[in-house]
Amino acid sequence: MTVTGAAPPEVPRSALADVVLERLTAAYGAAADPGRAAPMRAYMKDVAPFLGIPTPARRALSRTVLAGTARPTEADCTAIALRCWELPEREYHYFAVDYLRRNAPRCSAAFLPVARHLVTTVPWWDTVDLLAAHVVGALVAAEPHLTSAMDAWITDGDLWVARTALLHQLAYKERTDHERLFAYCLLQSGHPGFFIRKAIGWALREYAKTDPDAVRTFLARERGRFAPLTVREALKNIGA
Fold first, then answer.
1. Distance between CA atoms of residues 53 and 32, nearest Å
2. What are the helix and strand counts (H, E) for the chain?
3. Contact at 8 Å (CB) between 234 and 215?
């Protein structure tokens, strides 16, 4: 179950997922290091258990796992992601996120409920932010009618869903819909939570790399509505 209590999406049959999961659990399981696992779990505030595989080693193992495998369909992406998420250790979730980042162009609007499930299940910034910027963002860029879903997500009661809406344009640069970005920031300007306030600042700071004057003008007009943390984050690289 997700944190919202919604039933998870159905896992489709996938021969590719069968191969990948068999290889993955064997490779990651053999590389587990309990001595590293405990501090990794503590750093991530006990959100999930860890196998204790450092990122460079994990990615090298992932390349071995995927060597010679076929290009996935959307059903394969869904099956691999959901089956990884059913495993408790966080490294399997990281594998799924990396896999989806590479294969997001193979997924359609129909994948968005799966992405939402991943965002709201065992949620923490380490997976949510990458899913927001590189999976949900890619889906919305490819199918602009999904902006209506983001318009709903920004006021969702689940802070991780709202954070995803705030961050989904993070990699858009000059393609950013700045009016929508600014509107989202204002909608969540009074949120008491650190992860929303930080996300607002981060989204503005990232867009400031493309149009610093627009961000300065926006904050000159609206900064009284935002927490000091948000303003500091937004202006970090461009000044007041």
1. 6
2. 14, 0
3. yes
Asked if residue 89 lies in contact with residue 26, where contact means CB atoms within 8 angstroms, the answer is no
The rounded mean pLDDT for the chain is: 96
Look at residue 48 in the predicted model and tell me its pLDDT.
98
The predicted structure's pLDDT at residue 108: 98
Gap between the Cα atoms of 140 and 10, Å rounded = 22
Identify the pLDDT of residue 237.
Answer: 87
Give the per-residue pLDDT at 95. 98
Distance (Å) of CA 116 to CA 26, 34, 99, 190, 193: 28, 31, 16, 24, 20
| CA distance linking residue 209 with residue 141, whole number of Å | 19
Rounded average pLDDT over 123-134 = 98
Q: How many CB atoms lie within 10 A of CB 109?
A: 13
| Interatomic CA distance for residues 196 and 230, integer angstroms | 9
